[in-house]
Amino acid sequence: MTSVSDAPAVRTEELYKFYGTTEAVSGLDLVVPAGITFGFLGPNGAGKTTTIGMLCTLLLPTSGRAEVSGYDVVAQPHEVRDRIGLVFQESTLDLDLTAEENMRFHAELFGLSRRQSKPAVDALLDLVELTDRKDSPVRDYSGGMRRRLEIARGLLNTPSVLFLDEPTTGLDPQTRVAIWEHLHRLRRDSNVTLFLTTHHLEEAENCDRIAIMDHGDVVAHGTPAELKAVVGADLVVLRTGDDHAAVRAAREGFGLDGEIGADGVRLRVDDGATFVPRLCAGLGVAVHSVTVKPPSLDDVFLHYTGRSIRDDAGPTTLADIGRRSA
Amino acid sequence: MTQVSDTPRARTEAPPEPAPAHPPRRNLRAIRMLWYREVVRLGRNRTRIVMGLVTPLMFLLILGTGLESAAGQVGEGLRQYRSYLFPGVLVMATQAPAIAVGISVVWDRQAGFLRQALVAPVHRVSLLLGLCLGGAMSGALYGGLVLLIAGPVGVPYHPALLIALVEVSLVALMFTALGILAAVCIRKIETFQVVVSLCLMPLMFLSGAMFPPGGLPGWLGTAVQLNPLTYAIDAIRRTLPGDLDMGGYAVGPQLWGWTPPVLVELAMVVALAFGALLVAARRFSRAE
Known about the structure:
The structure holds two protein chains of two kinds.
Chain A: E1 10-19, E2 22-32, E3 37-41, H1 48-55, E4 63-68, E5 71-72, H2 77-83, E6 84-87, H3 99-109, H4 114-127, H5 143-154, E7 161-165, H6 173-189, E8 193-198, H7 201-204, E9 209-214, E10 217-222, H8 224-231, E11 234-240, H9 243-254, E12 259-261, E13 264-269, H10 272-283, E14 287-293, H11 297-305, H12 318-325
Parallel strand pairs in A: 3-8, 3-9, 6-7, 7-8
Antiparallel strand pairs in A: 1-2, 1-4, 4-5, 9-10, 11-13, 11-14, 12-13
Helix pairs in contact in A: 3-4
Chain B: H1 23-44, H2 46-74, H3 81-93, H4 95-111, H5 113-117, H6 124-147, H7 160-185, H8 189-205, H9 218-226, H10 228-239, H11 262-285
């Protein structure tokens, strides 16, 4: 048994959660070391959000164990709550209040007096670049600003683990990048563990480790590079003047087994971007367009489950859990 | 699972942990925060105050004035109907903020602030208590605004109005506690609104707010006797200065021929408030 101080950020053993007869989480074994960015990937309904709900003491596990920073989520919920921050998928800000008030009231929930919380509130608002808007009502904020404020709020109690449920869902691409910059800065400047869920592999690139969840259990885990290596190569799609000739030339000149799809010639290549110039030069066929597609979560997911991630519908969010549990 | 290559940073680099407050103090701080938050929100939403006062004032000024002017034809007792109606209207004024707190509990628990608060290391009972005190405070404010027009409707300005304000605050506490109890039991906002409007009307009609609770025919008398609001309104009526008994025609509520003293009536209100809050807290703290 490790001591509490160097315990992993999250550890679960044979964790189960049933809703009636529906198995939401089935025998989850997970170890997330402290101090990393951990991405939990999976389609809606895979059990990611239910898992976060249990780790954050909002839901009681049906059976099994779960620990956050060495504290049991069932036996020591207050110790766990003291050490976690949580950013829900949907906004839980008080729209009538200003950013500064949202922060201050939240700090008081964690037992900080106004005097104690003031420096922390100021520093965190500065971190997420909202200092100059701190006295505006949150109602007037954009989606990205609200999300940044929620991340700052989640950090108020200097948590060991910050849980983020789909932190970039519903945001435009530029805002997503900005949110990730903030999260990276956060990881650099503090030793907080980031535990987030997502269904975008592009976002998983930002994580130190990821785990793919399906039907309530982890089907694969590793670094993003490891996982993509399993699927293998980038997909290069060529539109050419003569597809059959192109396939032949690719086999003879580069030893690649291509196929002809509806969108053109499809080739699997490691590091497609650097390979394309050589390929075009050596193909001897007129090339009209080239697309290089890195392996997607869909590919990785397909590899492990035999299904496409898009087949699984059924949105489950922490909001549903809040509704069920509170 | 394998460990990652990324070495966790040394603990010493972490920002200094704030000294954890003593748990009771922490809960008190949370209660105070929720109460204060309610006050801030109320202050920022003045239209809500105006809207909340419309219905009670309509009863007082339209129904009250109308029936008073009919007094010449139908009977002497109605001559001071507006002052008779006044205690009931005071109680009615505390309903709007209580319902608002109830709605915020239903709503915030699903998609807002309260859901976030549930993750804080604070007892859920404290969360409810803070919300309840906030609602009671708002209710007292509404009641206070109605008390300002006591003079024009025949209730003299007198220090006893301050005692009445305290009583109104207790009623507001009871209403908010009942609103929170309903909110904790009901998950859908639509259902909550239906239940509330279904309950409020009979509660008011059967409370002696609009007609004297004594000497009613059997079934109606029993219903009025069972209604806790009857005693709340009677307590306020007996506290307010001036003649609020329709020139002696109105008889207060009686239990088996016994007229409960004002303090007993208020004790019933407080007991109901805490009973409702306890049941609500029990239901609320049950995790799934």
